[in-house]
Amino acid sequence: MTLRVAxxxxxxxxxxxxxxxxxxxxxxLLTEGLVRxxxxxxxxxxxxxxxxxxxxGTAPTGYSEDPALHAKxxxxxxxxxxxxxxxxxxxxxxxxxxxxxxxxGLVGTPVVTTIHGFSSEQIVPVFEKYNGRGYYVAISxxxxxxxxxxxxxxxxxxxxxxxxxxxxxxxxxLFFGRIHPDKGTAEAIDVAERAGLPLxxxxxxxxxxxxxxxxxxxxxxxxxxxxGAVGPDRRGxxxxxxxxxxxxxxFDEPFGFSVFxxxxxxxxxxxxxxxxMSEIVNDTENGFLVDTLDEAVAAVHASNALxxxxxxxxxxxxxxxxxxxxDYLTLYRRVVELHRSKQGARRAVR
Length: 350
Known about the structure:
This protein is an alpha/beta fold and 350 residues long. The chain has helices at residues 22-36, 71-83, 101-104, 124-129, 185-195, 208-215, 232-240, 257-264, 277-280, 293-303, 308-316, 321-349; strands at residues 4-8, 40-45, 54-57, 91-94, 111-115, 135-138, 152-153, 173-176, 199-202, 224-226, 244-247, 269-272, 287-290.
């Protein structure tokens, strides 16, 4: 029997995202991979999304792309669309966040939720309420919350064909991500200056105040440059052309696409030893794990000696999209059987 899966994507951005949108990127990669395997997939995303699956779109586009859209209103319409059709699917895969869980007790279809991180401890009570009913997936072992139960940890994967190996080191350092204190943009500038290398900064400005105070005054277009958000058409060239990617985060990073996207190009990563970084970065093999800025500067200099072909090899199996699709297919089938057993046990008790 063909598996029928509903993928519920966020609607902050289109699927796949034109520039920024890691959750939407995940939804796209998984959806297209499942379709290649012959799974009957319905993608619930913005109406302008691009997919080979069946597309059901309520919001015309992402509300982060069109500020005129009322985010909460369109989110309500979007989430209700999948749960009103729950009986058509064997599995609903929630890649949206905590809000769809509040519908899960109203339907008989199992809901798999990929938890992409916790924006605040204040949202944890929602996950706790549906802990016994839902099927939670962590994107890293580091991001598992001690108060929740999980059915699996599944690392993200990428289409490695979109990232070519650049065998020679570049002449600049790169910061690639949202510009926010959590991501360590200012620290990346400090390290680049001390290492004597130019820094290119790419990403959306998520915290304008932080950008205006700590980043913008240091931009000169030569030693430190900001080029804005970068989409898939430029991502590989930018990541591959860098000497190293600086990922000096100030929070426990749940995962991070740019880290292994850089490695797929052969570019080593200098990352602060927080969150999932030790699950992605193999110290001195494909990058360096550091605790201080002094260590980061030393790592930048040492990165020049790493074999960039070996850096790519280190991620080819672990973070390939087909491995991710395999893991989710195995999980869906296990969840369907487990859910049937739970329902049978409930009927028996009655």
